[in-house]
Every structure is written in structure tokens, then in C-alpha cells.
């Protein structure tokens, strides 16, 4: 019998139990997804602002889009752990593939360069921005521990979901932003996590497949995927191929009355993570109506299917997502 951890998604508390022998379920779709419609405006209380940081010059970097394999694994903590940096919120710009790319960086109050911090990326939907999704998601106030946040800006209306990762400008942007923050701040390499809304949630799931080797967990909200737009990156059983994907845990949040991104998209997303995590049947969790699936290899899987929610941000999402991320050590 195999022991699996079951993750409770309770706001304020997270519980674990051990189960013997789990069964897999779900088959992944082998078809491309439609473009995500522009989401309606969403609002949330303004997150608690860290103290203002001193003026910081614009960062500039030309990243390598694909990580280079090395004989030895990277150190558990980033190079930035040796550098003095101030807390605060700053807009940043990187040059990626010859274009200026921007993001909002939030370093928590009381930042300690000797303490490795979790790093959370938040991706916006169509027509949004990093600053807008920061307000809408309200993650910082719900953080259970000092956490560094990055809110990237797409070029145009939204992130590129369809270009292959080796050519995708937004994958290159993610790689560059991750490298930039790790070079300057003290980050735990084992605790890089992503969340996003609508098209941003699709981007989160795409990155779980394309960059799953550097991620610990994801929490897509009101989205779908991952998928391959060409239909070529699937095995003979219709499963999406994700070379190098590590044990990525996932919490999926979606409204059952969503008319922009159908809830059926979440069924496919759930099948994707269940298959890779060798997960079992759902069990009740908290807050209601969330459920948890047993997983293997340190993976956890949760689903919060909200019966009354349309295409919007669930009021309990911030606390539930940050509770989930806090368990991923």
C-alpha cells in the first residue's frame, strides 16, 4: 500500500492525513483550447502595502530562454541571499528578446536577506495588468509568511499561450523575471509558485507543463489548460507531454456558472494533474465546497468548484491559495 498525503485547504488551518492505495482517474484532452475571452472587471480590497522602497534603477537583462543542464544541481537558495536589498513595491523593466518587459515586484516588510523566501507570480487576464491583478487577487494580505510577489505585464491584451516554449516570448519573460529576482533577492528555489486569473490561469497551467522543473505549486483561477496548440505534443493515449516537469502541486479554483471560460475546462485541468500525481478520488476539504485528492511524490491536488460564481475572483480565493502555498515546503 502506498501512503499519500491528503491536503486540507482550510482557511487558517491546513490538515494532513495518510491514506493507503489510491487510484488514478481522468484522461487528458488532445485538443487545443480556444482563446480566452476578455474577463469582466474584478475588484478586491486594496492589499496591505509594504513600506516604500528607495528609488531603484530599471533592471535590464537579456535572458536565456532555456535552462542549461549542469552536472550538479543548483544550490537550494538563490544568489540574492548574499545581497542587501530593501523591502517595498517597485516597477521593474527587463529587456527580453529585444523588447522591454515590465512587472511589479513586491518585497515584504521585514525582508531578511538571510532567510530564503517563497516566490509567488500572479498573472493577469486579457486586457489586465500586473498592478490590476495584484489588487484583484489580494494575495499579500493573505500571506502566512514573508513572501516575495511578482506581477508580470503581458504585451498587448494577454499572454501568449500558443507559441512553442522555445520561441514563446512570455516563457522567455518568465525565465528572465525569475532569474532577475533570484539574483537580487533571497528566494527558496524549492518554493516558486504561480497563480493567475482567466488567461493568466491558462498561462499558469502552460508554465506548469513547460517550466514544471522549477515550480513547486500552481493555483489557476477561472482558467483551463495546459494544452499544445499544434496538437503534436501528446502521447498515443492523448496525454500531454511535459518533459522535465517535476512534482508540481495544484489548487484549481473555478466558478460553475462561468460563461467566459466554461467549467468543463477545469475538468480537463483536473485530469492533467490527477494523471501526473497518480491521484485518487476526491475527499471533502475546507473551506466548503473544496475537495482534495490524494497524491504521490509530494504532490497535492485540490479543487474548489464554486456553484454560484461566474467569471470572477472568489472572495475566499486569496486565503485559500496562500494557505495552500504555505504547505508546499
Describe this structure in words.
This protein has 329 residues and is an alpha/beta fold. 20% of the residues lie in helices and 23% in strands. The protein has helices at residues 130-137, 139-142, 169-184, 199-210, 264-277, 317-327, and strands spanning 3-7, 16-20, 88-96, 99-107, 117-123, 148-152, 187-197, 217-221, 249-255, 282-284, 291-293, 301-306. Strand 7, helix 4 and strand 8 (217-221) form a beta-alpha-beta unit. The longest helix is centred in the middle third of the chain and has 16 residues, at 169-184. It is globular, with a radius of gyration of 19 Å. Mean pLDDT is 82; it is low at 1-71.
Indicate the topology.
Elements: E1 3-7, E2 16-20, E3 88-96, E4 99-107, E5 117-123, H1 130-137, H2 139-142, E6 148-152, H3 169-184, E7 187-197, H4 199-210, E8 217-221, E9 249-255, H5 264-277, E10 282-284, E11 291-293, E12 301-306, H6 317-327
Compact summary:
The protein has 329 residues and is of the alpha/beta class.
Beta content: 15-25%
The biggest beta sheet, please?
Answer: 10 strands, mixed
* Strands ordered across the widest β-sheet: 3-4-6-5-7-8-9-12-11-10
Q: Classify the secondary structure makeup into a structural class.
A: alpha/beta
The CATH topology name reads: Rossmann fold
How many H/I helices?
6
Overall form: globular
Distance between the termini: 25 Å
Low-confidence stretches: 1-71
Q: State the name of the first-level CATH class.
A: Alpha Beta
Query: How many structural domains?
Result: 1
Kindly state the number of beta strands. Answer: 12
How helical, in percent, are the residues? 10-25%
| CATH superfamily heading | Alpha/Beta hydrolase fold, catalytic domain
What is the CATH architecture assignment? 3-Layer(aba) Sandwich
Amino acid at each position: 500500500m502506498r501512503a499519500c498525503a491528503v491536503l486540507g485547504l482550510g482557511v487558517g488551518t491546513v490538515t494532513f492525513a495518510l491514506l493507503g492505495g489510491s487510484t488514478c482517474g481522468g484522461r487528458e484532452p488532445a485538443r487545443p483550447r480556444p482563446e480566452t475571452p476578455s474577463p469582466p472587471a474584478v475588484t478586491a480590497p486594496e492589499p496591505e502595502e509594504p513600506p516604500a522602497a528607495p528609488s531603484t534603477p530599471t533592471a535590464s537583462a537579456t535572458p536565456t530562454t532555456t535552462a542549461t543542464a549542469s552536472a550538479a544541481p543548483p544550490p537550494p537558495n538563490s544568489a540574492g541571499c548574499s545581497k542587501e536589498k530593501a523591502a517595498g513595491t517597485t516597477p521593474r523593466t527587463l529587456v527580453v528578446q529585444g523588447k522591454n518587459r515590465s512587472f511589479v515586484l513586491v518585497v515584504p516588510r521585514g525582508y531578511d536577506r538571510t532567510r530564503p523566501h517563497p516566490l509567488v507570480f500572479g498573472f493577469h487576464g486579457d486586457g489586465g495588468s500586473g498592478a490590476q491583478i495584484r489588487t484583484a487577487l489580494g494575495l499579500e494580505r493573505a500571506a502566512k509568511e514573508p513572501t516575495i510577489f511578482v506581477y508580470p505585464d503581458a504585451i498587448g491584451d494577454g499572454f501568449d499561450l500558443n507559441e512553442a516554449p522555445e520561441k514563446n516570448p512570455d516563457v522567455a519573460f518568465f525565465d528572465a523575471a525569475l532569474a532577475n529576482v533570484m539574483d537580487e533577492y533571497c528566494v527558496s528555489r524549492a518554493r516558486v509558485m504561480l497563480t493567475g486569473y482567466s488567461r493568466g490561469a491558462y498561462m499558469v497551467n502552460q508554465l506548469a507543463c513547460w517550466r514544471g522543473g522549477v515550480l513547486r505549486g500552481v493555483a489557476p483561477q477561472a482558467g483551463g489548460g495546459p494544452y499544445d496548440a499544434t496538437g503534436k505534443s501528446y502521447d498515443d493515449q492523448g496525454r500531454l507531454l511535459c518533459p522535465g516537469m517535476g512534482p508540481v502541486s495544484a489548487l484549481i479554483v473555478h466558478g460553475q456558472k462561468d460563461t467566459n471560460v466554461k467549467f468543463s475546462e477545469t475538468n480537463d485541468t483536473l485530469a492533467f494533474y490527477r494523471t501526473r500525481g497518480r491521484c485518487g478520488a476526491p475527499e471533502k476539504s475546507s473551506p466548503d465546497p473544496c475537495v482534495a485528492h490524494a497524491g504521490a511524490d509530494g504532490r497535492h491536488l485540490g479543487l474548489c468548484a464554486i456553484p454560484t460564481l461566474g467569471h470572477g475572483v472568489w472572495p475566499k480565493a486569496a486565503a485559500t491559495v496562500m494557505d495552500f502555498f504555505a504547505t508546499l515546503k
